Amino acid sequence: MHKTRTTHLPVxxxxxxxxxxxxxxLTLREAGVKNxxxxxxxxxxxxxxxxxxxALVLLDLVMPHLSGHELLGTIxxxxxxxxxxxxxxxxxxxxxxxxxxxxxxxxLNKPVESNRLIACVKNAxxxxxxQWELLSLKKRMLGEDSLDNPTAFEAIKTRSSKMxxxxxxxxxxxxxxxxxLITGETGVGKELMARAVHQISAVRGEFVSVNxxxxxxxxxxxxxxxxKKGAFTGADQARExxxxxxxGGTLFxxxxxxxxxxxxxxxxxLLQEGEYYPVGSxxxxxxxxxxxxxxxxxxxxxxxxxxxxxxxxxxLCTHEIHIPPLRERAEDIPLLLEHFLKESVxxxxxxxxxxxxxxxxHLLGLSFSGNVRELKAIIFDAVARDTEGELTxxxxxxxxxxxxxxxxxxxxIGSGEHPIDALFGHFPTFHEIEEYLINEAMTRSAGxxxxxxxxxxxxxxxxxxxxxxxxxxxxxxxxxx
Length: 481
Hints:
This protein has a five-stranded parallel β-sheet with strand order 2-1-3-4-5, sandwiched between helices. By secondary structure, it is of the alpha/beta class. It has three domains: 2-139, 3-Layer(aba) Sandwich (Rossmann fold); 155-324, Rossmann fold (3-Layer(aba) Sandwich); 330-471, no CATH class. Residues 1-7, 402-416 and 477-481 have low confidence and may be disordered. Helix 8 runs parallel beside helix 10 (261-273). The radius of gyration is 30 Å and the shape is globular. 46% of the residues lie in helices and 12% in strands.
């Protein structure tokens, strides 16, 4: 996969004019283009591409040994994912048209104006990145279930197909330089996903986190951009901001939906131009940090209410990861229950308790407005309070009435009759028990098939197949559970 990560692949400058190559390299580096590599002998180009690949080739046409015209045709034929921009001293329209027909993305005349060169290169890199993203998404849609970076998601405990789809999408977009917006209710694991993005991107810099909620503009600017000496009272020495600390890494902006309007304008410039001013300074600085922003707000609503800038929203959501709430992935609750039980007993130095049917049923019926964070708090509290070695619905905050469905059977029958005989009126067949359990799970889950499947420890498809089979039986068409 390393050869398809266009963000980190080199930009090749191929020209026998070393001075020209040096000037272009300096111009592009100043504009923030990284991983530049110059080749002065055209015979070395194809071996280099074969070993290292490339995102873009800036190609001179007139060179000894192997002409740029020949190289252009070979690169576009054998390496169609690599963009080529021709740079030539020959200002001839027919030659430019011929190069475009061979697959060149653009044709620049020497001497190349700096702004034209920078715009052309950045556009080529954007196209290359988009092509890679589309190819990666297509590969995922064709049914590849395995993750390339499973360790990046180890902290997120899930068996949900929705979450797996998000992991695959995250792997595709993590290696691009564009901002990532992560949305979802409180407690769903947005920061864990942000850290996964950072880990997969393989950037060398730090993961730097800052909560921007409630920061007034001056504090926001000083925190992110730093200040120069004497910028304000008490500024006895210059200080770099967190954006400098995150150079070559990831700047994680938590609670971005609560950012002040003046601060939003400064963040917009940072995203658009990759530039910022330290407080009290008129010297512009560049950033190489990747921005990952997180919010539990509905940003389109805040945009319509004029609480969040529309242009900033569209800049941030180049890639958006929306994490579903826990109630929409109830199949994760048993897995999370087991995980947090192990954590809690280790923390409290207790033995692992038994989880009763009523306890699991109660948890599966909760809406969890605080999501995974709320579930963790409930489990830790239940383990801390437990003295019996068994956790029931009451242990998790349920009422005694909530246990009646489980305990009522044994209390309503005589001591001489087996509970299962009292329930069915006879000793049931396996299919009768299966149908009873599925019906009961569907009733307790209010018809939510995912929750019912999690309660029974089976797949959603198993219940769906059972219902389909039941509805097609003679005399039962249209029957609902």
